[in-house]
Design a protein that fits this description.
Aspartate Aminotransferase, domain 2; 2 domains; globular; lyase; L-allo-threonine aldolase activity
């Protein structure tokens, strides 16, 4: 992908800084013409439900919300009682970046962190934690587990790893939720079907992200365990996330899923991250951390390189994880020219 008609973009802080795909904006404009029944009784919402059932190869229930935090917290609220434990990795988004929303929407359920390499929960440790103090009235009780796909470190759960987590959940008699804020990025990196990455691997509910991958503001809760749907419908309304003009959320997701836009966007973001990783790995003093699989790259850069990039106007996180540790995130709109422009500046310092 090239874009010679604009100056190279300098932002690599997050995929949230990107705009929306033209197809999504066009769908919003089209949806604003005429009238449509409110609260999800419109043809756009019906189309999204059909598309997602086709994509996941089974009938699913779908609830649209405007943010990923709402999708995660509301979904988890139907999967745990207030005295329940939600097992997640310490670096997960629900544990670090949602301002206590899961506890708020669950009326007090507890996030219990489970360790594992590359920001992925270890199945054996999950099972051990979920079997602790079961039935003890003095302790919160196992309720569900949540995995982030792709993780906050840019790693991706393989199908075998998801199945191992699911097996642990089955052994502990708890449900499995997937925080898929970057689901499309993970999906194209694994070259598998959406069904294989979710319900066929044992996932009960998915927060399907779209905002980070070309949508203006819309996410989808996809329920494979359809017994959760009625309760979640009431919870969404009670939380203030049932849009009266739901067609404007649905039109975005409908365009996102049409003609494989969501997959094309994810492939471009991933390809840009791969190009960035390969280019940085060739430079003296640069250490690539982990094995970036999606669109997030963690690395350790020499301090003079960090300073030179910042002075040149590039934006990225560099002061959160220790000396010299940098995170770059590419988006669907990140071009190879954007990446090469950054690499050129980095090479100038490296020489």
């Amino acid at each position: 992908m090239t874009s010679s008609d604009r100056a190279p973009a300098l932002g690599f802080t997050s995929d949230n800084i990107a705009g929306a795909s033209p197809e999504v904006i066009e769908a919003l404009v089209a949806a604003s013409v005429g009238q449509a029944d409110p609260y999800g009784a419109d043809p756009y919402t019906a189309s999204v439900e059909r598309r997602l059932s086709d994509i996941f190869e089974r009938e699913v229930d779908v609830l649209l919300v405007p943010t990923g935090t709402a999708a995660n917290a509301l979904c988890l609220s139907a999967m745990t009682p207030p005295w329940g434990n939600i097992y997640c990795h310490a670096s997960s988004h629900i544990n670090n970046d949602e301002c206590g929303a899961p506890a708020f929407y669950t009326n007090g359920a507890k996030l219990v962190t489970v360790d594992g390499s590359a920001a992925k929960m270890d199945p054996a440790k999950l099972l051990e934690a979920a079997r602790s103090k079961v039935g003890d009235v003095h302790s919160t009780q196992p309720a569900c587990a949540s995995i982030t796909q792709a993780t906050e470190e840019g790693s991706v759960y393989t199908l075998a790893e998801i199945e191992a987590i699911s097996d642990a959940c089955k052994a502990a008699n708890i449900r499995l939720h997937m925080d898929g804020s970057r689901f499309a990025n993970a999906l194209v990196s694994q070259d598998c079907t959406p069904a294989e990455m979710t319900w066929k691997a044992g996932v009960h509910a998915l927060s399907l992200g779209a905002t980070k991958n070309g949508v203006l503001a819309a996410e989808a809760i996809v329920l494979f365990d359809r017994t959760l749907a009625t309760e979640l419908a009431f919870r969404r309304k009670r939380a203030g996330h049932l849009f009266s003009k739901m067609r404007f959320l649905a039109a975005q997701i409908d365009a996102y899923l049409s003609n494989d836009l969501w997959l094309r966007n994810a492939r471009q973001a991933n390809a840009a991250a791969s190009r960035l990783t390969q280019g940085l790995a060739e430079l003296d003093g640069v250490e690539i951390m982990g094995a970036p699989t999606a669109n997030i790259v963690f690395c350790r850069l020499p301090e003079p390189m960090i300073k030179a990039l910042l002075d040149a106007g590039f934006r990225f996180y560099h002061d959160r994880w220790g000396a010299g540790v940098v995170r770059f995130v590419t988006a669907f709109s990140t071009t190879f020219e954007d990446v090469d422009h950054l690499l050129k500046r980095a090479r100038a310092v490296s020489q």
